[in-house]
Design a protein that fits this description.
heterodimer; A: about 425 residues; alpha+beta; PmbA/TldD fold; 2 domains; B: about 450 residues; six-stranded mixed beta sheet; 10 helices; 23 strands; about 25% helix
Chain lengths: ~425, ~450
């Protein structure tokens, strides 16, 4: 990467090199039987050059032809893409604890999956699917201003689900840590208990009702908030939150943060993919809008400080404002207490079609896969062909309760949310 | 390149192994509103091992040729772990080892055309949207990928195929007061750049729809009879039915395998569905899949009766059915999985107007906004729709998502039109993205769907 930087800086005013490499293993059990064990070895390099206020970008997987990569990036200058302003300057970054020793081979993953499978199969009659994976990855950002930031991360994750007959809908929980850790017993118990309580298909009635959004469905709502607090959408004046910093937008029960520096969880980062130092950012504090997040380009366009949210999906893409460490702050109620508070209504377990609808406007209309019907504070069965719909800026004002635990959801952590007076439609 | 790959193949002591290498060239150009936010052209490559040993089957993508031995060792260790760990032994259905090279016919090869010309083309479409004062912003992108694929196997296959895909797509955002509405647009295919030219009138129509949506009303939730346009019918064929036709989706579900039994009468008499990657001129065209099998058309449903299934060599052996050539990878970073190539509902004889007349009162739903399935349950969005009274479309509606059960909906599909249209933009996200996933259908009448609404 240093040689690439040297070659590029001779022909450009400023240069950023981003490199990544990863090694991963995945094991899957389907229908309680070992199904697959696969691995991958992946690497890549992205180059951004700046000249006369314009930027050029190119990437490659296998860094053999450095001159060719520089040629591609310089050729892209002809497009006239405005640069993202000044590159970051080197600063002392916090030392984060992001890596742990990965012990054991893939047989360890197989043994853990088998343990989870046996546990669930002994308690439920549904189809049991489990998976475990682990990854070691390294990112490095090198700039012509002297930034040389590196991060080595390890991640172990496991996922367990019990599916209803004839569907891929079911009750699922996931878990992650920096290194192998047995899947929590309480989560296996939740899956089995919730599945066993909801096996019977019941008919419900369309109308406005209380809805308990489980973490996967909470993600569908938070996705809308994430788009609205993207500095890009604020800059283009299409976010409904433009000009509303300091305004009470959501229920005061809701605090939403992005916490890249929280290294108690896997995936913490001290710098983003542009080399900007990361910082924890509160987007909504007790329902009050506090901040928008940006990358260097939109910080430059809006004349604000970069927040350290310039992430790439891969080396093939340029950095964009993104949220990669979201946490909805837990409340005070256990899951059982929330069911009692709910009384009657539907549980939105997994969202189907969370991406569709007018997200920027805050609208959602999601299928329930499944929906669980609740009467007198207890789950009585599952409902099919059902949707909940609304607008997050109306519905997230109607929070009755927030669960006391934030659950794993990829790189995010969300508790369940109990909302009042939500539109629910089902086949009659 | 073949000699180099075959030398690498010699590193593996297994019952079967294959190796795919791809050299890709990607060009992308992006606008956010009037702002040009990116332009790049890059070259990249990668390898994928697949190994079968003692019935254990493992796949390892890797980037660097110097990692070939390490990756092969991982694949063999994984295969041995599967064989000893109780996994169902894998067999591969027989397929002749083909030696061939194939280059697609292109109407205006995009590769030699300078990026500046592609930028000008994209800017022209973007400007059509931004000229309208009610359009607040756009996301407009040009994306082109050419993949030069080499494939060798221990059975003696030696294949090379080039795939060239180009598209212009994005989203238009209209704003009035605090209300924003957005509509997608897109043109593209795998038969050359000419397809991207001369689409100004369609772009203008997309802008009009987006602006009209500012005055549309949110749909009222309930159960409706609906006419689906070709885009919605296509997404039903792909999302709700098509994924169930992929053998890997149902192979480990005893209940789904029982239901999706060849010969079962699952749909109405008017419902016939085909997947045909070899159909010329459509987005999903290819000749050989990524395990060296020649693609062929598969009649998945004939007059409501399940008649075929999409396979890899592994699942064809597992189901005891013939190979179909549908095992496809997104690109050099992925092992292949079973994918639809070009799935569509076969047209019948009715015009759109006749279908609306047959509908009487209900909804006319247009332009899918993505879909998702969970087994037999599906949810799809529509970008807009119309209330229909006495066969006449009236008020425009927005915020539409429909939900249903695959089997009930296939029986409720009571009429099909004569106006088959295939999609030009793919984007199936089954484990990996497939930009070349093509789908379509004619207008269809469905007697009952659940529509979410406020």
């Amino acid at each position: 990467m240093e040689r690439l930087l040297e070659i590029a800086r001779k022909q450009a005013d400023a240069v950023t090199v981003f490199g990544m490499s990863s090694a991963a293993d995945n094991v899957m059990f389907d229908n309680a039987r070992l199904k697959s064990a696969d691995s991958h070895l992946n690497s890549g390099t992205a180059l951004t050059v700046v000249k006369d206020g314009k930027q050029g970008f190119a990437f490659t997987r296998n860094l053999i032809d450095r001159e060719g990569l520089v040629r591609d990036a310089l050729a892209a200058l002809a497009g006239g893409v405005e640069s993202a302003g000044d590159l970051p300057q080197p600063v002392k970054l916090p030392q984060l604890d992001t890596a742990a020793e990965q012990v054991g081979g893939n047989s360890l993953l197989v043994d853990e999956c088998r343990r989870m499978t046996d546990h669930l199969s002994s308690r439920v009659k549904g189809q049991v699917n489990v998976a475990a994976s682990r990854m070691t990855d390294e990112q490095r950002v090198l700039t012509s201003t002297g930034v040389d930031a590196r991060c080595l991360s390890t991640n172990y994750g496991a996922h367990a689900a019990v599916l209803y007959p004839g569907t891929h809908a079911g009750i699922a929980r996931g878990f992650s840590a920096k290194a192998f850790t047995p899947f929590p017993e309480k989560d296996l118990q939740f899956i089995a208990d919730t599945y066993n309580a909801s096996g019977k298909e019941v008919k419900a009635v369309s109308g406005r009702t209380r809805v308990l959004f489980l973490p996967f469905s909470v993600w569908a709502l938070v996705w809308r908030l994430g788009e609205a607090t993207d500095a890009k959408n604020a800059y283009e004046k299409v976010s409904p939150l433009v000009g509303r910093i300091g305004e009470q937008v959501l229920s005061e029960k809701l605090t939403l943060k992005d916490e890249p520096l929280n290294d108690s969880l896997p995936g913490a980062r001290a710098f983003d993919d542009e080399g900007t130092p990361c910082r924890n950012l509160t987007l909504f504090e007790r329902g009050v809008l506090r901040a928008f997040y940006n990358d260097r380009f939109y910080a430059h366009k809006t004349g604000t400080e970069p927040t350290g949210h310039g992430w790439r999906g891969d080396v093939t893409t340029r950095p964009e404002p993104s949220l990669a460490h979201l946490r909805l702050v837990p409340g005070e109620h256990s899951f059982e207490e929330m069911l009692k508070l709910m009384g009657r209504g539907v549980i939105a377990v997994m969202p189907l079609g969370a991406h569709s609808g007018n997200r920027l406007n805050g609208d959602y209309s999601i299928g329930l896969a499944p929906g669980l019907w609740v009467e007198d504070g207890a789950i009585v069965g599952m409902v099919k062909d059902s949707l909940v719909a609304g607008n997050v800026y109306d519905d997230l004002k109607k929070v009755i309760a927030v669960e006391d635990t934030a659950h794993w959801l990829g790189s995010d952590r969300f508790p369940s949310l109990l909302l009042d007076d939500i539109s629910f439609t089902t086949r009659t | 390149m073949f000699d180099r790959l075959e030398k690498m193949l010699g590193l593996v002591r297994a019952d079967y192994a294959d190796l795919r290498y791809e050299l890709a060239r990607e060009t992308s150009i992006d606008f956010s509103g009037r702002e040009l936010t990116g332009l790049s052209a890059s070259s990249t490559d990668g390898f994928v091992w697949r190994v079968l040993k003692n019935g254990g089957w493992s796949q390892v993508p890797f980037t660097k040729p110097e990692d070939a031995e390490r990756a092969a060792r991982s694949a063999l260790e994984n295969a041995e772990l599967l064989a000893s760990g109780g996994a169902r032994p894998v067999r591969l259905a027989p397929a002749p080892p083909i030696k061939d090279e194939f280059q697609p016919k292109l109407s205006e090869d995009p590769r030699p055309i300078p990026a500046e010309a592609k930028l000008a083309l994209l800017r022209k479409y973007n400007d059509i949207a931004l000229e309208n004062p009610k359009i607040a912003t756009t996301e407009a992108a040009y994306y082109e990928i050419s993949r030069d694929k080499y494939y060798v196997s221990t059975e003696g296959a030696r294949l090379r195929e080039e795939l060239v895909t180009a598209r212009i797509n994005g989203e238009i955002v209209a704003k009035e007061g605090s209300l924003t509405q957005r509509v997608r647009f897109g043109f593209g295919g795998s038969d050359g750049l000419a397809r991207l030219r001369g689409r100004e009138a369609e772009m203008a129509e997309r802008v009009k729809i987006c602006v009209d949506l500012l005055g549309a009303e949110p749909v009222k939730g309930g159960e409706y009879r609906v006419v689906l346009d070709q885009s919605m019918a296509g997404v039903f064929a792909h999302e709700a039915f098509g994924h169930f036709s992929e053998a890997d989706i149902i192979e480990d579900s005893p209940t789904m395998r029982e239901k999706m039994c060849i010969g079962a009468k699952l749909g109405s008499d008017v419902l016939s569905i085909t997947d045909d990657p070899t159909r010329p001129g459509q987005l999903g065209f290819y000749r050989f899949d990524d395990e060296g099998v020649a693609a062929r058309p598969v009649a998945l449903m004939k007059d409501g009766v399940l008649s075929g299934r999409l396979h890899s060599r592994r699942t064809a052996a597992e189901f005891g059915e013939p190979v179909t050539g549908h095992c496809v990878a997104q690109d050099y970073r992925f092992a292949p999985i079973i994918r639809m190539g070009c799935i569509f509902i076969e047209p019948r004889d009715k015009t759109k107007e006749e279908l609306l007349e047959q509908l009487g009162d209900g909804l006319y739903l247009c332009n899918h906004m993505g879909g998702a399935t969970s087994g037999e349950n599906f949810t799809f969005g529509a970008q807009f729709g119309f209330e229909v009274k006495s066969g006449k479309p009236g008020r425009m509606l927005r915020d539409i998502n429909i939900s249903g059960n695959l089997y009930a909906t296939m029986k409720n599909l009571s009429a099909a039109g004569n106006d088959l249209t295939l999609s030009e933009i793919g984007g199936c996200g089954k484990y990996q993205m497939n930009f070349r996933s093509c789908y379509g259908g004619p207008h269809v009448l469905v007697d009952s769907v659940v529509v979410g609404g406020r």
